[in-house]
Specification:
Elements lengths: L5 H13 L11 E10 L4 E7 L6 E11 L8 E9 L2 E8 L11 E10 L8 E10 L4 E7 L6 E8 L4 E8 L3 E8 L6 E10 L1
Parallel strand pairs: 3-7
Antiparallel strand pairs: 1-6, 2-5, 3-6, 4-5, 7-12, 8-11, 9-12, 10-11
Length: 198
Amino acid sequence: MRKLTRTGAIAAMAAAALTIPLAPAFAEETVVMTNSTSVGPGISAYVSVNCPSTKPYPVTTRTSSIIQDTYDGPLLDYKGITVNGRQVKVSFSNSQSTSDPHGLRVSVKIEVVCSNVRHEPMTGFEFMQSTKMPPGGDALLTVACPPTHPRLTDADERHPAKVSVTAVYPEEHSHSVWYQNDDFMAENWAELWATCSA
C-alpha cells in the first residue's frame, strides 16, 4: 500500500478544496412601492406603504405633491413621517379653511424603495412639490419639514430654461420659491425638492 506523506496530504486536500463549487454571491434586489391620497380643506390624513415580505427593508423614501393652483402649495402641512418595520407612513393635513368658497384638494404621493438587504436606518427624507404653470403664469412652491424631522438639510429647485425664479424664502424648517413661466406660448413646469432630518 502506498503511503501518503504529510506534504502530499496537504496538497491533496488543497486540490480537493479547489473542486468544491462556490455558492453565488447574495445579490440585492429592490422594488419601488407607491401609494397616494388626497384630502379637502380642514382634513387630516395619512398615506402609507408596506414593503413586501420578500423585500422587507425600506431603503429610501420620497414624498411628493402636485399643486393645481398657484396659491395652494402652502396649504399642505406635513405632520410626521415614521418607519415601523416594513411600513413607512406620512401624516399630513390640508390647512385651508373649510369656509373658503374656493375649496382645494391637496394630494400626497409616497414612493419607497424596498430591499431584501438590511441597510442603515434612514436619517433624511426627501419631500418634493411640483406644479405646471400656464403660459406667462407663476407659482409658489413650498416644502415644510414635519415636526418629526424638522431640520431642513438641503433644498433644490428644478425647472426648464424658460422658467425663472423670482423670489426665494429660505427658513429653518421650510423653503419656498416663486417661479415665473417666461414662455407666453407654452405651459411649463417647476419642482422644489427638500431633505428633512430629525
